[in-house]
């Protein structure tokens, strides 16, 4: 597809309170769309502290809003300790609204949080809806355990607001993998808007590989953002300490959000093991995963898509707090034979982790598992849907077409 649209605009919102998942998902979609459609501009509103650490393609840019971080107990706090959380949220809401007014998008895509962090996007949704813009909510394949998500959304009457504001709800996974709203009392008006577009495939760039890609075979151990990655890194280090016959080369990526004292402790522990190399962060994880013989991860959405995209044997040790999202995704993927999983309780046994690591590179890749959970059709499906909408816009008012 090389269709050209005259000054078409898409605005994306990524609240980014913890980790990099939301921003990386938005960036993947944005890059795919500008590659398919010339004349299309995408602007991403992001709260990620390191939004500027990534490369963005021509016609993709970002607006940084003040950062709010989610603590391990699920509460929020302002990134800057001297700034009141309420003030930070007011600033964010104002910047989001003014960005929407100035940028004047044809389509507004909101990632995961239907009304934004603490409802900060609701005013902007109302403003854009009144101007006939197309509003899309993007949900990952798994949100959380149904009882937890239902309780969270009931507090803000979220399902009814989705029905009121949004034109479409995209689920970034195939329908036979998992239903993110399954087990909940979902209004028919919301169900009718849902499109299961598929997983978002990842690819490597044409740039040279990062310098720290190890030579030869290596297992990649990645924590994603790293804010809650301490347990995974420690479990793997302890496995190497406990089993001297574990000699696979490992590259550990701690993640940019791992607290400094933990990072220091992990680096000191790993330095005593000749088979482990440690780096803090790489903004091109795709290349590291593509070059690995196998992957050990917590099973967040982006890493899971990369494991499928590059067809890598994987061991997932999911986190279970404050959300059960990773546990649900890993359990389902293991059921389908796509990955191996260790529950965090099992991963507390170093010899059990060592045994899993030793057999991992010889594990069959995901492509040999159940085909249903593997489909990576998200980007072409999104591109097709957006192209239809923008063509309609050129022929008159932008109307919503069933994807």
Overview of the structural elements:
This protein has 403 residues and is an alpha/beta fold. Helix content is 36%, strand content 18%. It contains 13 helices and 15 strands. The protein has a seven-stranded parallel sheet, sandwiched between helices. The chain has a six-stranded parallel sheet with strand order 12-11-10-13-14-15, sandwiched between helices. Strand 11 (250-253), helix 8 and strand 12 form a beta-alpha-beta unit. The longest helix is centred in the first third of the chain and has 19 residues, at 85-103. The protein is globular. The two termini are 17 Å apart. The model has no long low-confidence stretch (mean pLDDT 91).
Rounded average pLDDT: 91
Sequence stretches where pLDDT stays below 50 over 5 or more residues: none
Percent of residues in helices: 25-40%
Largest sheet: spatial strand order? 3-2-1-6-7-8-9
- Shape estimate: globular
Radius of gyration: 21 Å
Structural category is alpha/beta
List SSEs in N-to-C order.
Answer: EHEEEEHEHEHHEHEEHEHEHEHEHEHH
Distance between the termini: 17 Å
Largest sheet entry: 7 strands, parallel
- Bin the strand percentage: 15-25%
Helix segment tally: 13
Could you tell me the number of beta strands? 15
List keywords for this structure.
alpha/beta; 18% strand; six-stranded parallel sheet
Topology of helices and strands:
Layout: E1 3-14, H1 21-36, E2 37-46, E3 60-64, E4 68-70, E5 76-78, H2 85-103, E6 107-111, H3 122-130, E7 134-140, H4 146-155, H5 158-165, E8 168-172, H6 188-191, E9 194-196, E10 219-222, H7 230-242, E11 250-253, H8 260-271, E12 276-279, H9 285-291, E13 294-297, H10 301-309, E14 314-316, H11 325-335, E15 340-341, H12 350-359, H13 378-394
Parallel strand pairs: 1-2, 1-6, 2-3, 6-7, 7-8, 8-9, 10-11, 10-13, 11-12, 13-14, 14-15
Antiparallel strand pairs: 4-5
Helix pairs in contact: 1-13, 2-3, 7-8, 7-12
